[in-house]
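Allow me, if you will, to draw on your knowledge of protein folds for a short while. I have a record of one protein: its chain in single-letter code and its fold written as discrete structure tokens. The full record is reproduced below for your convenience:
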Amino acid sequence: MVGSEARYTGAAPVGLAQGWSLDRLTPPSRLFGANGLRTGPDGRVYVAQVAGSQISALDVDTGELETVSAQGGDVVAPDDVDFGPLGDLYITEYYDGRVSARGADGTTRVVRDDLPGANGITFHQGRLFVNECRIGGRLMELDLDGGAPRVLLENLPMPNAMEVGPDGKLYYPTLGGNDIWRIDPDGGEPERVAGDLGVPDAVKFDSQGRIVSTQVGSGEVLRIDPRSGERTVLATIAPGLDNLTFVGDRLFVSGFTGQITEILGGGRTRAVLPEGLTWPLDLTVDGDGVLYVADGTYFHRYSPGSGLQVLGMLFSPGWPGYIRGVTAVGGGAFVVTTSNGQIARWTPARGEHRVLAGETEPFDRLYGVAVAPGGDVVAAELGTGRVVSVRGGEVTTLAAGLDRPMGVAFGPDGTCLVSESGAGRVVSAAGSGVETVVDGLDTPQGIAVRGGTLFILDAGAKALISVDLHSRTPITIARDLPVGPPPGVDPKPLKGLPPFSGPQGLFAGLTAGPDGTLYVSADADGSVLALRKLDREG
């Protein structure tokens, strides 16, 4: 992958049925977000991507990217990386609680698989240190020969990316404590170095021995003198910064949205890689025709001419959780499903949400959500094969025994329609059971209804299909869409880790605007597409 190419290249360009046009509203993403960074022996920056289970090597001068560990391979949800003394790449696999090592020949071995929330990783004089980014996390030295870890500290409030300083002490930030600490790698009492920060999630050192730390909450890149405590804001980018690395004296930082930024002098920055969407997942259009995009740890409004605007993210006040399904309900409010198993009503402008269902007994992998004509909230629960209906806090089962239900929509007569991704069909669901509306599909996910037409986004077939609800005749509108996993790739499950996220999974969402525009979550290449039916005169 070179230059401005996307992270995904389809086998063929998108094909459209006659009378349809396609516009790409947002550019393709080059990465699946950007998490841990480390400069390799070859001078390239190695970028871990949790959501995409991918590690890429970046030439910071040319922008050239090489996929080092691809989606569908042995490494799952890599969060941080470092190089061992023999050149092997050591990787923390956050959701699987593992540390793995990847040799120059591409072979991978598991070093340990019993480290829940394994995150920060660093070598010092041939010794490997790892911590767990979770409530009650541990800081440990791992035995490279397979012996039991040596626990330096435990019950830490979400420690993260760390490094040994010039004084020989191991410096680590804590997200839950909003501070930076240090400890002698050989043991002893920890010492607080700095506090009241912007939620620090990484610590590295410059050539002058000063701490440089990204602040995920404030979006600042801070320089802190560990001797005097003096602080300098090197740059303010945006909330969601994740890690940093030096290439010589040049400083580069990563962010959740996949941007890699070089920090220059005087607060100036240079975009090495642009930001982009990590997935995206579901989409919705409000009564004014404004498009909104759910991207897991981010939620965006789209405006023609200005693109995506962040309305909320993981560290925003009132954030309801990792958003998978969404539908606009008026007044700037949305009903959302989260990967933590809750259905909530969320108003971003007010910074507040109210859980409608799943607070005490979370659901098992919620996906699409819609509001029935009578006001009931209906959602697909993939894990149990159910479609649930919520009214006044009471949950009832609208349909059960389905094979991986994902998308939900309502027909013009108020009938609930559900995409049954595991069975390759769309069904209507009622108290009396389910009826097949259309079958012979591959992996239908997002669905939408406009007038008497059902639209289906089939992620497996990479196609957008329309079905007249009277004749039930399917017509393919678009084929070879950049949705679903790459051809021949079977992505490993992303287990998630509360409180940041529950289990994650692909979901190619679909919605229709009041003017008939169909909006598609192109989750394979990280963009949003708009398909429109042309006027006959055009």
User: Anything to note?
Assistant: The domain at 30-273 is CATH 2.130.10.10 (Methylamine Dehydrogenase; Chain H).
